Amino acid sequence: MNERSAQGHETRTVLLRGGEVHSPADPFATAMVTQGGSIAWVGSESAADSFADGVDEVIHLEGALVTPAFTDAHVHITATGLALTGLDLTGAPTLADALARVREYAAARPADPVLLGHGWDATHWPEGRHPTRAELDEAAGGRALYLSRTDVHSALVTTALLELVPGAAESAGFAEGGPLTRDAHHAVRERAHSTLTPARRSEAQRAALAHAASLGISDLHECAGPGISSEEDFTALLALAAERNGPRVHGYWAEPVTSAADAARIRALGAIGAAGDLFVDGSLGSRTAHLTSPYADAHHTGSAYLDADGIADHVAACTEAGLQAGFHAIGDAAVAAVAEGVRAAAARVGTDQVRAARHRVEHAEMMDGQTIAAFAEFALTASVQPGFDAAWGGPGGMYAARLGQERAARLNPYAALQRAGVPLAFGSDSPVIPLGPWEAVRAAAFHRTPEHRISVRGGFTAHTRGGRRAVGADEGGVLVPGAPADYALWRTGELVVQAPDLRVANWSTDPRSGTPGLPDLTPGEQLPVCLRTVVGGRTVYERPNE
Q: How many whole angstroms separate alpha carbon 143 and alpha carbon 85?
């Protein structure tokens, strides 16, 4: 890209021209002007001539696409950075390869008191099993090792780490020959992460923020809380993000609230809500999601961490305190408990008050018509991760193994949620699924269960405007005059309109519809490449040699 620029970063006026601007203000726009941290104008190339001499900078797009920047509505930033800069078993094709990665990492980090790793998933390993403790002891050279499963709801550990956590073997969720879950997992996780130095933690956080910026992400919802991270980690992250130009970090602290004092303490941490991963249940991969009927591959229904009464208390107290509440709920029993609890809270404090608070539910994977209707009734944001279906859906996927194909095919019903008017916000749950907003939009548009598919435009909106609305920033996530200058530039192919219903798609391509196109996300097609990310008018990422 060719550009000319002037001094005055914060108040400068910038003209972008010669590309495609994705804006509902003008579906045929090719140019945009920003002033300071806001969008001032969107329009045609011919009209851009009148601005050219009065701006501080001109960016010649050379056909690039300009879109609102993305918001990832569910991330764990420190853990993401540790995966980026440390031992990451995501994508390890075999058990043998995973053990080899552990050996290599242990050799490269001789001074670490505890080795930290993430991302193993034995579901598709040809060996058909996870590593034994003895195998990990050998691979780690007898050192303490914490190795979280891809869903972060269970972990494998070495003998040396167990010796550092007295009482872990007597805790709920301890398994002598397998992954640790529940209290045992939380205890070893806390001990392992307590060994992170401030410098190592900052390194990880900076890496995660830089990576997000390189993917066109302007905003991240950090889902923290006891058992997930520490208050020190949370406050340090918020302080670091506040010092940088972007991406912004919106912090949630997942701790139950029963009083105004509880709410004040959570606000004092810098959190915008007592939400995120306040666990009602666990995960399907670790067989801890709470189901109404047993797993297909286990004789139990998972784990219930919070019941409807506890949910009602939390929602009512948060609503009265003007604080956003939220929960992690995956299994059908867990999501139904959330609906029941929110209904009970609304009976106490008023439905309008509950709706106005914009409470949210993370994941919400197993939903029937009744729970979807409750989400719509109480304006609960469904903070969902389309990458889950891409990774684990389909006839041969983990969902089918855990639930059977019939139940698995009901998961993540995005089309039904959208039809009911439930607010959708897309995220990754990184490091569970790597950051990748276009991948998430593709996964929603090409859901493994066709009836759950939504249009690319609907998915794109959920990953841009939906995430901003979830934190009360209604003006963000769209390129119109007066909106924040949060945008990304992309190198991409032909712009199209993709929707599950071909009648809608065909009409949308008619110029009379005024529907701006988006990149072709058909599986196998190359995804857009981010060239630049701008947050509040400030460039936070620029692709080298572009």
A: 20
- Which 8-state DSSP code applies to residue 328? E
Distances in Å between the alpha carbon of 234 and those of 44, 79, 87, 394, 427? 44, 12, 22, 36, 19
CA distance readout (Å), 154 to 41, 179, 416, 432: 50, 6, 31, 12
DSSP-derived 3-state class of residue 217: strand
**What does the DSSP 8-state code read for residue 325?**
E
- Mean pLDDT taken over the chain: 93
CB 72 within 8 Å of CB 218: no
Q: Give whole-number Cα distances, 466 to 8, 107, 126, 546, in Å.
A: 32, 44, 39, 30
Strands (E), 285-347: 324-329
Contact residues for 199 (Cβ-Cβ < 8 A; gap 6+): none
Which SS3 state, helix, strand or coil, does residue 194 take?
coil
CB 274 within 8 A of CB 323: yes
Q: What is the DSSP letter of 173?
A: T
Please, what's the b/e burial string for 354-372 (b: 16 or more CB within 10 A of its CB; e: otherwise)? Answer: beebbbbbbbbbbbeeebb
Structure tokens at 534: 């701008």
pLDDT tens string 223-277: 999 978 899 999 999 999 999 999 999 999 999 999 999 999 999 999 999 999 9
Residue 425's closest CA among 70, 9, 153, 99?
70
Q: Evaluate if residue 299 carries a pLDDT over 90.
A: yes
CA 123, distance to chain mean position in Å, is: 22
What would the two tokens of residue 407 be?
């139940």
Characterize 519-529 residue by residue with b for buried, 16 or more Cβ atoms within 10 angstroms of its Cβ, and e for exposed: bbbeeeeebbe
Instruction: Show the tokens assigned to 268.
Output: 């004092």
Residue 428's CB is within 10 A of a number of other CB atoms, namely 28
Beta strand 31-35 pairing with 13-17: antiparallel
3-state per-residue secondary structure call for 120-142: ECHHHCCCCCCCCHHHHHHHCCC
